[in-house]
Amino acid sequence: MRSKLFVFTLLILFLTINLIIVDESGAIPAFARRYKISCNTCHAPFPKLKPYGDEFAGNGFIIVEDEQERDYVTAGDELLWLNKEFPLAVRFDAYAHFDQDQEVEKDLQIPWGLKLMSGGTLYKSIGYYFYFYMSERGEVAGIEDAYIHFDNVFSTPLDIMVGQFQTSDPLMKRELRLTFEDYVFYKTRFGHSGTNLAYDRGIMLVYGIEKTGTDLIAFVVNGNGKDEAGDDLKFDNDDYKNFGFRISEGIGDFMSIGAYFYQGKEKEVGSQLKNEITYWGPDINVSVGPLEFTGQYLERKDTNPLFADDATEFDAKGYIAELIYAPQLDRSRFYFTGLYNKIESDLYPYETATLSGTYLLSRNLRLIAEYTRDIEYEVNRMTFGLTGGF
Prior knowledge:
390 residues, mainly beta, two-stranded antiparallel sheet, globular
């Protein structure tokens, strides 16, 4: 009991020191530097995107009305638009954990992650974005997000994204969440399957119908994640491609409802045994005043996730519910998040409830205090941390 009290005292002292020594006028990330605007223009709080931030990203990370040839190196060539300054930014995450009944209960994960980010314009209506994890959980994780974005192709509401992204991005972007606790169902692989809804390589098409408030998203990916290329320099480990689709319908300015479908097939390396995967499910997002609620249900079906000679089907059901409270809307310095995760599966049961608080020391530096109750195993986790972008 005394040891637990000691670690909590240290964690509180850790947060207090940071509150004292961090200056309010921290450095600003690449896009804010480029356009000389506050991080609050796109984020509230970072990394969570506001509607304008979504639009900015959808335009290929450019402010269309502010783009001028004089801001680029063109060398007199109308087909060349080079950034005068190469945009770079850094994200730093550090956490202190108390995990009940673990072999290591008290852990200082400092830094938990350090990544180098860049994004901007390649040409008119063409942008790029990538980040490189120089350290994630103590290892060099390499490139995760990395893509080129073509905006308004053929002067239509069609956007095309080519590269590496998460197939869960049309639902909720894991990289933009406010909690340390993840959207667990997205990243879970079942049995020996190599497929989940996290990072993959492929092509994504986005089409918006402004009149009806309808968004249509379709993608095709390898289906085996972002594993390294094999000896034959191929990134996919079988001949199959996986496909996904999402439709979302806006209802006024406060609600959207959607449906998601994903289907694919995979083959076990070195054999002819196959597994077919299907995801499907509805989702809803409601934003009223200082409250924003997102609820999702996803069902996954595998025909042979263990790649056994006598194939056995497995079903998994995932539930994600998130409620964010911003007392002063996008001008808030305090944010509160409730997150519920549940996976119903014989292979990987999971259920947690999380309460998380965020305090902005500056627009690009925030503190986190978080409590997670593991309902499945009846244990607790406390997390204290900071996230900065500069």
